[in-house]
Amino acid sequence: MLLIELGNYSITAAFVLAIFSAAASVWGGLRRRADLILAGRNAALAVFGLVTAASAALIWLLMARDYRVEYVASHVDNALNAFYRFSAFWGGQEGSLLLWVLLLCVFAAVVIRQNRTRNAPLMPYATATLMVTALFFLTILTFITPPFKTLPVPPPDGKGLNPLLQDWGMVIHPPILYLGFVGFAVPFAFCIGALASGKLDTDWITSTRRWTLFSWFFLGIGILLGGAWAYKELGWGGYWAWDPVENASLMPFLTGTAFLHSVMIQEKRGMLKVWNVSLIIMTYALTIFGTFLTRSGIISSVHAFADSSFGWAFLAYLALALVVAFGLVIWRLPLLRSEHEMESFFSREASFLLNNVVLVGMTFAVFWGTIFPVVSEAVKGIKVTVGPPFFNQVNVPIAILLIFLAGASPLLAWRMTSARQFQKSFVYPSVVAVGGLAVLLLFGVTHLYAVLAIALSIFVVGAIWLEYYRGVCSRVRHQGENALEALWELTMRNKRRFGGYIVHLGMAVLFIGVAASSAYQQVGEVRLRPGESFAMNSLRLRFEGLREDRTSQYNSAFARLAVFEDGRKIGEVEPEKRVYFTPPQPTTEAGIRRGFKNDIYAVFAEADEDGATFRFMVNPLINWVWAGGIIFGLGAVVCFLPERWGRRRSSYAAPALAE
Fold this sequence. Notes:
This protein is an alpha+beta fold.
């Protein structure tokens, strides 16, 4: 009972101290009182300690299977192993909200530590903003859905963890996604601090650049891990279904991407200041909106929690945050004027501005498609379903334009690109792209969007190759390094720039995988008896028989399928059907034979004495999606590294190509 009381009192005390921290920080900033500012900081650190204590108490109760706590009884059972008992901390409504505020308090403590002697005018307001965000979640945990609520009579066994969450992908996917969602609160807090204090130079941007990269990286990786989990676990052969909760994670990633590009214009040319503050406000708002979608019950999704009664609280907080934030923007408009004008459409500034417009346009299209069923039901009383056809029709052309911009933007110079520069930079990537287009047509690839996406991705690869080739040749010529040394030094001395190129390369590889697997997926459904086969072009799958297994948590049946290509056996796949004991629920585990050029994907639908029903798919180049994600992650890590890391001592700096 001690841990239960500790958890309850910790959350209540954190709620009170968050109010004090926010109030003291704002009042201290307005009155320039160092004692109040210090008190606000110390209170924020105390909130971090209290929330950490509450989280540790809940984890302990889960590991100990203390069924006196309703949350524990609802999400673990006697047979659940320790690994999944730990992951049950974020497997339910209350625990995931506690994880949200825990991460936020950890980030707040790190920010306070980092800025003890820096950004003095901004920090009181940044601290207050972080504490107001924490206060919102602590209000829900204190008054609406307390995680330490007890049961009058503890049950002998719990209800167990949702079987769909009993997978390694769903163990790591939610906290990684949360790192991205919560992390964007830090640049938002500094933005509010800059607006409130009137200190609207680039200091708030440079101070939060790595925080923005950190959040963007984890949000992107979380999205990819969610796609990998859906591909393996849900048995429909895809990785992205434009599900409302999937969309909720994509929208802040898009606006965060726009922000990362746009701030470079402010740092370099003192332009797009209104864009930058607006983009980070939108990104923060979309993280709150995404959290609302998963908890409000207004949408149907495999990723959402059950219906809840506090969706109104999220909407109220979201409205308040937007009113205050954009009110500050309007107040500070005179200080947000651009220092320079756009000089040419053929410039890097113009390409980045177009990138902003395209990404925000895509965000709006996804947002409208996500909320339209709710709006339709509220206005007409009829819930109109908006499915993948709408999202694909609107967003695929936008994505193709984004691929082109990813290749074209690095080739353009700041201010203005001369005709000679334009020709010199664009000829090689264009020739490579046209050559790739010819090869695609020669091999019978005629799907319009697939051809455009792959050809433009080749254009991106060509542009990145050109930039690296110029830089490496310059270092070899001037420094006497070999090609590998020059490649390493070039990247380590220009981490932000060349790390960005690696990210673009990853996105190009990913888009090739998306285009091929979406346009040329082959699907077949058949019922087979043992020994019978099913053919799909050069592939043949033969049903060898069934085998059964039993664990402490579920019964399972495996269908063994031999895979042949051009008459030669190349391997086997074993799709699985599970029936969990607690809670009683069936799940499907796809059998996948992965390969460089395609995946052979088999789903075991049902079986009886006469045979079994299967759904087969061949997904071309789908592993390029995951490979692109790995390259994307590598590039983001390069961008994040400290400036001096990995560099040899040398006075030479790489030339500013295309600048």
